[in-house]
Write a structure and sequence with these properties.
By secondary structure, the protein is mainly β. The protein has helices at about 35-50, 75-90, and strands spanning about 1-10, 15-20, 60, 100-105, 110-115, 125-135, 160-165, 170-180, 180-190, 195-204.
Length: about 200
């Protein structure tokens, strides 16, 4: 889709105003004059070649048990041929899928893993991109061990400013002291003069 418009800016908000939306093909030419069915056919074909999937019926790549029943302790030498076989069963020629395309492979034990198309000609055209989940949706490594969220450790600090959060000349600032506590300050702008209205601590 080609979207045109402009940015609207005021003292309190900024947002994009859409003026036109035009469906286009892969070379940027408009297909808005085409019938709805013709446009849908174009997008179905585009999705099929780019993602190995159909817009109306999303494709799930299920790893056959005969190749790998679980992602845990598997290796690409057993998983990748199973991907190719599964795509054949779905009527998808993996040779038509561009390199760089990422797919999610589901294993019979409920584990899932992301694989990226690394080569159009190599024996093993797909490679694991480092992301996998157990059947509970938790991030895991190749051995099935849980991967902890790297963004929850330690005590952070900083200031988040939200000017115009409450129209009428009032600014709000959140000061992050640690993981469990935020200090909120309120400042009012009255006729160009800044007035400190104090602050308070809240759980974050």
């Amino acid at each position: 889709m080609k979207v045109t418009g402009y940015m609207y800016t005021s003292p309190y908000v900024q947002y994009f105003v859409v003026q036109s939306v035009t469906p286009i093909d892969g070379t940027g030419n408009s297909i808005s004059g085409e019938s709805e069915s013709a446009q849908e056919l174009f997008y179905n074909t585009f999705d099929q070649s780019l993602f190995g999937a159909n817009r109306s019926i999303p494709t799930a790549v299920n790893e056959p048990d005969s190749y790998a029943a679980s992602f845990i302790n598997s290796n690409d030498e057993e998983v990748v041929p199973g991907i190719g076989y599964a795509l054949i069963l779905m009527g998808i020629n993996q040779g038509s899928i561009p390199t760089g395309t990422v797919i999610t492979v589901t294993f019979s034990d409920g584990t899932t893993a992301q694989y990226v198309k690394a080569s159009p000609t190599a024996t093993y055209q797909w490679t694991w991109n480092g992301t996998a989940h157990n059947k509970k949706g938790q991030l895991i490594d190749r051995a099935g061990g849980l991967i902890q969220n790297p963004n929850t450790a330690g005590l952070g600090s900083g200031v988040v400013t939200a000017p115009g959060f409450n129209p009428g000349g009032v600014d709000w600032n959140w000061v992050l002291n640690n993981l469990n506590e935020c200090y909120v300050t309120v400042t009012a702008d009255v006729s160009g003069e800044s007035i400190d209205l104090g602050g308070f601590t809240i759980p974050c």
